[in-house]
Amino acid sequence: xxxxxxxxxxxxxxxxxxxxxxxxxxxxxxxxxxxxxxxxxxxxxxxxxxxxxxxxxxxxxxxxxxxxxxxxxxxxxxxxxxxxxxxxxxxxxxxxxxxxxxxxxxxxxxxxxxxxxxxxxxxxxxxxxxxxxxxxxxxxxxxxxxxxxxxxxxxxxxxxxxxxxxxxxxxxxxxxxxxxxxxxxxxxxxxxxxxxxxxxxxxxxxxxxxxxxxxxxxxxxxxxxxxxxxxxxxxxxxxxxxxxxxxxxxxxxxxxxxxxxxxxxxxxxxxxxxxxxxxxxxxxxxxxxxxxxxxxxxxxxxxxxxxxxxxxxxxxxxxxxxxxxxxxxxxxxxxxxxxxxxxxxxxxxxxxxxxxxxxx
Amino acid sequence: xxxxxxxxxxxxxxxxxxxxxxxxxxxxxxxxxxxxxxxxxxxxxxxxxxxxxxxxxxxxxxxxxxxxxxxxxxxxxxxxxxxxxxxxxxxxxxxxxxxxxxxxxxxxxxxxxxxxxxxxxxxxxxxxxxxxxxxxxxxxxxxxxxxxxxxxxxxxxxxxxxxxxxxxxxxxxxxxxxxxxxxxxxxxxxxxxxxxxxxxxxxxxxxxxxxxxxxxxxxxxxxxxxxxxxxxxxxxxxxxxxxxxxxxxxxxxx
Lengths: 360, 254
Prior knowledge:
The complex is a heterodimer.
Chain A: H1 2-17, H2 35-45, H3 49-66, H4 68-71, H5 73-82, H6 84-98, H7 106-123, H8 128-152, H9 157-176, H10 183-189, E1 199-202, E2 205-208, H11 209-227, H12 229-239, H13 241-246, H14 251-277, H15 288-298, H16 310-329, H17 334-356
Antiparallel strand pairs in A: 1-2
Helix pairs in contact in A: 3-16, 5-16, 6-11, 6-14, 6-15, 6-16, 7-8, 7-9, 7-14, 8-9, 8-14, 11-12, 11-14, 12-14, 15-16, 16-17
Chain B: E1 5-14, E2 17-27, E3 32-37, H1 43-51, E4 58-63, E5 66-68, H2 73-78, E6 81-84, H3 96-100, H4 110-114, H5 121-134, H6 152-166, E7 170-174, H7 182-197, E8 202-205, H8 209-215, E9 218-223, E10 226-231, H9 238-246
Parallel strand pairs in B: 3-8, 3-9, 6-7, 7-8
Antiparallel strand pairs in B: 1-2, 1-4, 4-5, 9-10
């Protein structure tokens, strides 16, 4: 009995002791970490390192396997040319995935804009610059339409864009009449549409203006996402929408602007794609949606939103390009390219999950 | 003495459920007002009405004697009422500095800030560091650390620091110790004392009776949608308070 009363008497003293004896509860207990834990911590702080490491490894590996043929300046610059369109799609896709959404309609929006640009300038004789402006505006409109459905009706982005993918694709067929616009006609009537297909040679490497524009898009987006309040808000909305709301962020406005900006990027991509392909074809880039998601995921951006970087998407697109190029130069069948890509996606998401575990 | 924050005859119904029935509350300068009450007594609704998260059906709120109405938490914040929500409202993937200025970032001066909307990141980091060290939390060394790498108590510290950085009139804390261990709760209670010593009055909502009785100057007991009484924790025991809260004891007439 006396023991219990003694215990009770000691208890408050124990409570007072806590925090008084120079104990600091807010210092970090730096535990002895094993190497794996250190790697996990490092990757958590630098999420872009995963795609960078994979990119370097794959370039080195294919360089060893395929030799000089792969490693030539020409081939490496060709890879950049080949990933230009997927890169631009992935840039738009990253913005949306960062807000914990997904956009299945990216390629359809891009093709629709390119159809508008081609149709107006080549077939209707409207000045090319005006046709391009109409194309850019319709991209913004398509994106805003997605954003409006997502914010106004609280529909999941997956469902919204699955729907609009089909709607936009149907519009593509309607406006184009299932007809391609031939490259020669574009060259005659509206050469400005081919502007981004122009090439420059730098020491044997060959770049299109489109590749430069793609890199410029990434630089601008990196700046906006990291250096402006809007960019921080995009991350906050994807990370925890409710917390963002309570912090005073108008989340619906952010979401709407993200989808609209993505639409503009896709319209720019439409112009670049006309230069890259030469013609305007209603059935081109049919797999662009999934390719863009692949690039974003391999680039280390989390599908759950709020984590990742825009530069990662560029690396992701380059990894895909390096794999296709390297495997085909090494003489492997196309089916193995797909096989490797599939494995890469699963590994990338696996690594992402593992890195995210750090907070628990 | 004029109360800093005063709620008068606040009513709020959710369908047939009466959450607030002519509820009153007064908060004076330089005090910590504990708010306790049984589950469903309406204390959360009352607090939400004060911080703008809920719009009352009728009733008045006065801040420094002036009638105010809040349509959103942002409007309440603009008048100097800051709330530390139970879920903290922090973005785990963003850094401590980003979180402290989330929704009210500081832009750079000149063209870069005005036209390109570039953030003054070093300025915000310095301010965040200053605020944290004022509250004795500077042992959080790296201001660019992601919030998700912090412990529960440290996150609470960041949320409190954010509130004190901007809360000029009133700080409302909703269950600040609910998710914390003994040590970390202690630290948060010290933090409440720290904030009070800077002359900012605090409303503390908590289920934890010992915590409320330790730091509160007055305890507001809420029952059945209205204020039952306000007691001085020095004159009442915790079991008295529980008895009042549950209706086992009559309210004192004062």
